[in-house]
Design a protein that fits this description.
A 3-stranded parallel beta sheet has the order 1-2-3, covered by helices on one side. Strands 4-5-8 form a 3-stranded antiparallel beta sheet. It contains 9 helices and 10 strands. It folds into 2 domains: 175 residues, Rossmann fold, CATH 3.40.50; 119 residues, Glutamyl-tRNA Synthetase, Domain 3 (Glutamyl-tRNA Synthetase, domain 3, Alpha-Beta Complex). Helix 1 crosses helix 8, helix 6 crosses helix 7 and helix 8 runs parallel beside helix 9. The protein is α/β, with parallel strands linked by helices and 322 residues long.
C-alpha cells in the first residue's frame, strides 16, 4: 500500500440504477477504509482529522436511473456504518460544471462535434476490413475529426450529434511513447493503454444531450478535491481516458486503486445489469465481513455481540497493516 498524503479525500460514486449488491459494498467499503485508515480516525467519528469520505450519486444517465434508488443506496450505506463526511451530491445537478469544461476543451481545439451514428462507425470499420472485438467497442475511426486547419470534411454537411475529445496520436503526445498513456495502480501495478488504437477519440457529450461518464467523473473528482480513487477493477480501463481528460483540463490526477471484483457462479462480474441480488442487510456485520474478505482482509468471525462498529474498526486496522 503506497504512502498517503497528509490529507486523503476519497469517494464512493454509485449509479442509482438499483440497490447496492455484494460487489457494490466491496467498492464502498474499500474507499471508506482507504480514508479512515489514514490518520487513525475511528469509525463513526468525523473524518476531518485525517481525511474525508464523500458520496456522489452518479445519475447523469437518467434513462437508466430508478426512482428512489438513490435514497435506498444511502440507507444501505448507513446500515453498514458507512456515513459520508459531507452531504452527498447528485451529478444531475452539476450540468453547469460539465458545460464549462466542454467549453474549455472546445476553445482549446481538443473537442469537436461528431455526426456519426453507431451504424456509421460500424460501416467505416467494415470498409477498412476491421471487426468488432468480442468484448469491447469499435474504436472511433476519426471520420469527423478536424484536420490541422480545423476543417471537418467528415461532417459532409451533417449536423453534429455528439462531442468527442481528441486523443493523442503522434510521437511526443500522451505519456511514454506517442499515444500510450502509462499510469500506476496501487494494487494492479504499472498499467498502459494506447489511447489511439484501444479507444480513439471518445464521447464527452452524448448524442442524446446527456453528459458522458468520462467527463462528469473527471470534473466532479477535481471539484470535490478527490485525492484517492478506490473503485472496482472493471473500471480500470477507463483510467487512461480520465487521466487524459485531466491533462487536457489542467486538473490534478488522483491516486488510483482498483479492487477485486465479486463474481457470480457463472464467473461474470456481479452487476445490476446481469441480475445481481440486492445486498442482504439483515446481518450488516456478516455482509461487511464478507466484503472485507474479498479485499483480502482477514477479520475475526462475528458473534451475536459483534457490532458494525467492531467490524469497521477491525477492517481499518487490517487495511492499515497491508
Amino acid at each position: 500500500m503506497s504512502h498517503l498524503p497528509a490529507r486523503c479525500v476519497g469517494r464512493f460514486a454509485p449509479s442509482p440504477t438499483g440497490p447496492l449488491h455484494a460487489g457494490s459494498l466491496v467498492a464502498a467499503l474499500a474507499s471508506w477504509l482507504d480514508v479512515r485508515a489514514h490518520g487513525g480516525v475511528n469509525p463513526g467519528q468525523s473524518g476531518q482529522q485525517g481525511g474525508q469520505w464523500l458520496v456522489r450519486i452518479e445519475d447523469v444517465d437518467t434513462p437508466r436511473c430508478v426512482p428512489g434508488a438513490d435514497a435506498l443506496i444511502l440507507s444501505q450505506l448507513a446500515a453498514c456504518g458507512l456515513l459520508p463526511d459531507a452531504p452527498p451530491v447528485w451529478q444531475s445537478q452539476r450540468g453547469a460544471l460539465y458545460q464549462a469544461a466542454l467549453d474549455q476543451l472546445i476553445a482549446q481545439g481538443l473537442a469537436y462535434g461528431c455526426a456519426c451514428t453507431r451504424a456509421d462507425i460500424a460501416r467505416a470499420h467494415e470498409v477498412a476490413g476491421r471487426h468488432k472485438p468480442r468484448h469491447g467497442e469499435l474504436v472511433y475511426p476519426g471520420t469527423c475529426r478536424p484536420d490541422a486547419h480545423g476543417l471537418q470534411a467528415g461532417l459532409q454537411g451533417r449536423t453534429p450529434r455528439a462531442w468527442r475529445l481528441r486523443v493523442p496520436d503522434g510521437e511526443g503526445e500522451g505519456s511514454g511513447n506517442g499515444a500510450h498513456l502509462a499510469w500506476t495502480d496501487r494494487r494492479l501495478g504499472p498499467q498502459s493503454q494506447p489511447l489511439d488504437t484501444a479507444v480513439g477519440d471518445f464521447v464527452v457529450k452524448r448524442a442524446d444531450g446527456l453528459w458522458a461518464y468520462q467527463l462528469a467523473v473527471v470534473v466532479d473528482d477535481a471539484a470535490q478535491g478527490i485525492t484517492h480513487i478506490v473503485r472496482g477493477e472493471d473500471l480500470a480501463d477507463n483510467t487512461p481516458r480520465q487521466i487524459w481528460l485531466q491533462r487536457c483540463l489542467n486538473l490534478p490526477t488522483p491516486s488510483y486503486l482498483h479492487t477485486p471484483l465479486v463474481r457470480g457462479e457463472n464467473g461474470e462480474k456481479l452487476s445490476k445489469q446481469n441480475g445481481a441480488e440486492p445486498l442482504d442487510l439483515r446481518d450488516p456485520c456478516a455482509a461487511l465481513t464478507q466484503a472485507a474478505r474479498v479485499l483480502g482482509l482477514a477479520l475475526p468471525a462475528t458473534t451475536a455481540s459483534t457490532t458494525v462498529g467492531d467490524v469497521l474498526a477491525q477492517a481499518v486496522s487490517a487495511w492499515q497493516q497491508r
